[in-house]
Amino acid sequence: MERLKFLVIGILALTLAGCGQTIVETLNVPEAPGFDAPGKGRAVVILPFADYSNAGNIESAYRRNMAVTEALTDRFSANGFSMPVQEDVFQYLINEGVINYIPYEETKSVSMVNELSNEWSDVMKDEIRRYIAEQNTTSGVGATSPGTHALTKNAVAKIGRTFKADYVVRGRILEYKSRQDPGWEPWKKGILPFINGGTSRIMFGFASSDLYDEWNQQITGAVYGARIGYEHSNWPWEEDDGETIFGMSSGDDANAILWGSIGSELGKQSYRSGDVDQAVVQLRVWVQEATSGNVIWTNRVDVKVSPESFFADNQYDALFNKAIEKGVTTLIDNFVSTGL
């Protein structure tokens, strides 16, 4: 009884100690750059990137640009460069007519958004969301090619003088999309999708239709199951009386069909599992000398990020943030080592 009392007290103590919040804090520029940092005493102006990724609507284009700009700011700061506030640069470009501001409020889709809270079927709600996405994709030159305005050398020099900068940084977002990781590592996909999916790919190749892919997985699972059922049957291996189904004796049919059905269902479930999302980001960056407008350095990076295992964080924001951070770090480190 005394032990039970201590056990209850211990559980209550753990429960009370567990109240609160879990905090994850990240400082992207962990410490001030050293005295001999390569960018010490130099300033850069980061312009909005031209977005050719054709991913999403105007709102998502703004957010992609913001994510890239923030990563560039952190990396330049870590190398000792100084920069103006990005909002000041943005407002200057609007005032000069270099870029156009396009609002992305969902004013045309308010009633449709309200419909999502009604008792529609899941299929109908998916159609409503698709229609909202189409309505929120604004047409026009400024919307279809955000940030693609060309700049003359005089315009670049004027930006440099306005912000007392040594360099002007421009770039392109060439790709920004998600896809399935083509790898087959079992610690990423899971054991069952690895076994069944790999066998299905060997037997049937790659099908362009999701329905065919699902059939492939089911057939493969059924073959596995039938074989297991046959091997564990009490009937002899050889045929009897010439009555066979796919080479199996008639006495084995029930056992093989049962296991084949189980394997087919497992194959179906493995098709619907084992997805490994991968974030793909491709960037091009130019650095121009502010006084002359001449390009002094340019390079391109293509980054693909996926979870290391099925226990890792596979949320889109984590994958894309890591891809942008890795790509920008590689580019700016290359500029610092070769372009300065």
The string of secondary-structure elements, in order, is: HEEHHHHHHEHHHEEHEEH
Return Rg in Å. Answer: 29 Å
Identify the CATH homologous superfamily of the domain at 37-102 and 138-176 and 280-304 and 313-338: ABC-type transport auxiliary lipoprotein component
Number of strands: 7
Q: What distance separates the N and C termini?
A: 75 Å
> Proportion of β residues?
5-15%
CATH architecture of the domain at 37-102 and 138-176 and 280-304 and 313-338: 3-Layer(aba) Sandwich
State the secondary-structure class: alpha/beta
The shape is: extended
Number of helices: 12
Overall average pLDDT: 75
| Name of the top-level CATH class of the domain at 37-102 and 138-176 and 280-304 and 313-338 | Alpha Beta
Taking the sheet with the most strands, its summary is: 5 strands, mixed
Low-confidence stretches: 138-147, 234-251
Helix amount: 40-55%
CATH topology-level name of the domain at 37-102 and 138-176 and 280-304 and 313-338:
Rossmann fold
Can you put this structure into words, describing what you see?
It is a single chain. The protein has 340 residues and is an alpha/beta fold. Among the domains are: 37-102 and 138-176 and 280-304 and 313-338, 3-Layer(aba) Sandwich (Rossmann fold); 193-271, no CATH class. The protein is built from twelve helices and seven strands. It has helices at residues 2-17, 58-78, 86-95, 110-115, 122-136, 141-144, 153-162, 186-189, 191-204, 210-231, 253-271, 316-338; strands at residues 44-46, 50-51, 167-180, 244-245, 248-249, 277-289, 295-305. The strands form two sheets. Strands 1, 2, 3, 6 and 7 form a five-stranded mixed β-sheet that branches. A two-stranded antiparallel ribbon has the order 4-5. A hairpin with a 5-residue loop joins strand 6 and strand 7 (295-305).
